[in-house]
């Protein structure tokens, strides 16, 4: 007898913690691991004997800091020289190297030096979630919905899909984290008609979205994000404080002692959590440096002073959201908090005052709201016929405007930010010179006035155009943003009726590389030899999708 297919799962692939859930029997079940934990640290560690994922990896990170990888979400789909990667390198104890413009992790494992792309490390965490769900459900899991920050760009979304493929999952949808939260909130408040603001401060980012809920219809009206502001940034501030306290007490500088910093990072995270409900937290870390231990007390005032600019950053983003949308504070019916960092007392007070002392909605579990929504979306997309979700629909939105620059410098506005997706647009561009034989377009996302100052999604060139007078021939281009928020481009020349579809693959694993990784996803590979070697075949950062009509 063929075993029954397992239900599709939802995965909240977080910067600090990852969670997995399933919707069945009319409700969401957040799935614990073998130790009963529902929050799995997003850590992967490599030792001489094995590869560790989750709690086991995090617990031994201080012993093996150069080979314990975390914060992967801040590197996935990015270029090596991006601000987020450069900022991360300042406090990451592991080695991040530049391979053809993309950050990759170099570790020592099983007696060899190896390199892994962020997609591969993310895939290891997703595989852990997949296996955890399979044990819980007693069946093989093949389908999943994975969450991403609302402000993730095209390359980051595509790279997340690739990570799911490497993990052996069919990714039904990439869903924005605030949108997932809205799904969970709507299910908990059936039949409401309300405009809510989702304030999602997770480990590695801040996302804020205005979402309308009318019965079973959920629509994202506006969204804004900050990829440099998350719970781990608060942790770093406390680590810096503890380093100064240690220097003052013992006249020793441990700034570059990675083992000590790993210990302090764990202590800082615990202290931050404690300070959410207490006025002070005791920090006791044994053998921080040689035989010297650290015993200190962090008060809530210290936390607030060290992080005052981060609190202000949250308010700045709220201001930007309202300025960029057609809404005012008074248009918001409920302010819903989600993400573990929203437990901080000062943050709640700051948001409470911003909305003129309006009570904040903390009815959702701060850690699990996102994964619950992902599980609901997975059930909807996989055909779960439960009456609780039968008529639920979600219309998401793009976080940034998308514009195109063509041969000759012509600039066209394609999609405005906060436009609902999926969305499609066709444009015809005339040739701009006599006997023109090629045509190129560059696609950008962002709000800066000068289009070239925005984020380049991709570069595409159509060659072999039949010679003709200027303006006679037309180049047809179709731009399509799918449900995942990923842009696809179809480009062709009108007279020859030739069309080819290309995708902006900037910063992704090459297709050949991805195929290899999928086949060998359970084994370690790629010895790291020369840092300039082309063995690790990644596409260049500004991909050229060259299409030839001849």
Describe, in plain words, how this protein is organized in 3D.
- With 550 residues, the chain is an alpha+beta fold.
- The chain is built from twelve helices and 29 strands.
- The termini are far apart.
- Mean pLDDT is 86; it is low at 498-507 and 522-550.
**In DSSP terms, counting alpha (H) and pi (I) runs of 4 or more, how many helices?**
12
> How many beta strands in the DSSP annotation?
29
The 3D shape can be described as globular
Helix content: 25-40%
> Structural class, please?
alpha+beta
Indicate the radius of gyration in whole angstroms.
Answer: 24 Å
Relative strand content: 25-35%
For the biggest sheet, the summary is: 6 strands, mixed
Distance between the termini: 53 Å
Indicate the mean pLDDT.
86
Uncertain residue ranges: 498-507, 522-550
């Amino acid at each position: 007898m063929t075993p029954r297919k397992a239900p599709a799962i939802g995965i909240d692939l977080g910067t600090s913690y990852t969670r997995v859930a399933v919707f069945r029997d009319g409700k969401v079940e957040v799935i614990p691991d073998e130790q009963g934990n529902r929050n799995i640290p997003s850590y992967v560690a490599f030792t001489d004997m094995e590869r560790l994922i989750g709690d086991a990896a995090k617990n031994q990170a201080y012993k093996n800091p150069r080979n314990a990888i975390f914060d992967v979400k801040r590197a996935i789909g990015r270029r090596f020289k991006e601000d987020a990667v450069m900022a991360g390198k300042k406090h990451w104890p592991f080695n991040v190297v530049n391979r053809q413009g993309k950050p990759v992790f170099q570790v020592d494992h099983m007696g060899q030096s190896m390199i892994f792309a962020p997609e591969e490390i993310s895939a290891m965490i997703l595989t852990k979630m997949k296996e955890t769900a399979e044990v819980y459900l007693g069946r093989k899991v093949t389908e999943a919905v994975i969450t991403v920050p609302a402000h993730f760009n095209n390359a980051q979304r595509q790279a997340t899909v690739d990570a799911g493929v490497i993990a052996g999952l069919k990714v039904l949808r990439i869903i924005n984290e605030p949108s997932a939260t809205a799904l969970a909130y709507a299910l908990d408040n059936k039949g409401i008609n309300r405009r809510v603001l989702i304030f999602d401060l997770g480990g590695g980012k801040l996302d804020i979205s205005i979402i309308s809920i009318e019965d079973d219809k959920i629509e994202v009206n506006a969204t804004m994000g900050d990829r440099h502001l998350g719970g781990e940034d608060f942790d770093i501030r406390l680590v810096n404080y503890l380093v100064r306290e240690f220097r003052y007490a013992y006249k020793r500088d441990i700034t570059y002692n990675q083992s000590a910093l790993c210990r302090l990072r764990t202590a800082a995270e615990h202290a931050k959590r404690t300070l959410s409900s207490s006025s002070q937290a005791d920090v006791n870390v044994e053998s921080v440096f040689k035989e010297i231990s650290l015993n200190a007390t962090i008060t809530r005032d210290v936390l607030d002073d060290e992080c005052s600019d981060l609190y202000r950053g949250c308010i700045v983003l709220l201001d930007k959201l309202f300025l960029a949308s057609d809404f005012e504070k008074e248009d918001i019916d409920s302010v819903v908090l989600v993400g573990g960092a929203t437990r901080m007392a000062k943050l709640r007070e700051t948001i409470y005052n911003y909305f003129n002392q309006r009570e904040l909605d903390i009815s959702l579990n701060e850690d699990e709201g996102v994964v619950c929504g992902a599980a609901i979306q997975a059930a909807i997309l996989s055909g779960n016929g439960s009456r609780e979700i039968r008529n639920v629909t979600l219309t998401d939105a793009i976080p940034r405007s998308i514009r195109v620059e063509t041969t000759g410098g012509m600039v066209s506005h394609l999609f405005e930010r906060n436009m609902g997706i999926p969305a499609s647009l066709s444009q015809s561009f005339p040739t701009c010179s006599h006997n023109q034989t090629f045509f190129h377009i560059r696609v950008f996302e962002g709000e800066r006035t000068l289009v070239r100052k925005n984020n380049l999604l991709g570069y595409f060139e159509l060659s072999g155009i039949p010679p003709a007078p200027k303006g006679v021939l037309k180049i047809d281009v179709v731009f399509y943003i799918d449900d995942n928020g990923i842009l696809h481009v179809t480009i062709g020349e009108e007279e020859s009726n030739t069309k080819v579809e290309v995708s902006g693959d900037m910063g992704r694993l090459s297709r050949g590389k991805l195929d290899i990784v999928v086949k060998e996803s359970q084994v370690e590979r790629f010895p790291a030899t020369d840092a300039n070697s082309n063995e690790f075949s990644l596409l260049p950062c500004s991909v050229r999708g060259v299409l030839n009509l001849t």
